[in-house]
Amino acid sequence: MEHTVVFEQKATLIPKDMNRLGKETIDSIILNNLRKNLEGKCNQHGFVVPNSLEILSRNIGQTDHGHYTGNIIFHVQLQAKVYNPVSGTILTGTVEKKNKMGLYIIYKDAIRVLIPRDLHIGNTHFEKIEPGEEITVEIKKSRFQIQDSFILSIGVLPSGSGYVAGPTSESLLGPLGTNTTVSTEA
User: Fold this and answer.
1) CB atoms < 10 A from the CB of 120, how many?
2) Architecture of domain 2-83
3) What CATH number is given for 89-156 in this structure?
4) Nearest Cα residue to 114 out of 131, 132, 137
5) Residues with Cβ within 8 Å of residue 84, at least 6 apart in sequence
6) Which of 10, 16, 92, 102 could cross-link 116 (Cys pair, CB 3.0–4.6 Å)?
7) Residue 58 phi/psi, 5° resolution?
8) pLDDT tens column, 108-117
9) What does the pLDDT look like over 1-52, one tens digit per residue?
10) Domain S1 motif, which positions (predicted)?
């Protein structure tokens, strides 16, 4: 779920940033600006983990032609750690809320997981979970957009927790509670 990605980004230094050149290097100014804009938010790769952004390379910089702003544009190659949970990912998070809809779990302020109550009807383990507890969940689907402050996921309690979400034995029985197997003998 957490992996390292390499990507390119355009960074702009305004004339006000150039005043800091005596105290800081161009790389540190660019890195600080990119950290403000990228870390703790989602980009096309997932949620960028704070304090994980590194500059791998950059070009010499070009002035912004035609706008007369004095801005210098750099094309920077970056490396960062990102969270991007796929279906089947198991993670441990803290229960933030519990209501009639289900449980709301937070994982490292990056991923928020909703566990619907409808998928766990009759599960006594699910009913005993209270806010503040640490629980393990299995991600079923995740969604985010660029600049979101977290990834929103739907999950279930994993099968190792004593309950498997899905059809119950009662739903497999016929309308009168009898087994409805079909005989194929002629």
Assistant:
1) 20
2) 2-Layer Sandwich (3.30)
3) 2.40.50.140
4) 137
5) 1, 3, 45, 46, 47, 142, 151
6) 102
7) -155, 160
8) 999 999 999 9
9) 899 999 999 999 998 988 888 889 999 999 999 999 999 999 999 999 999 9
10) 88-155
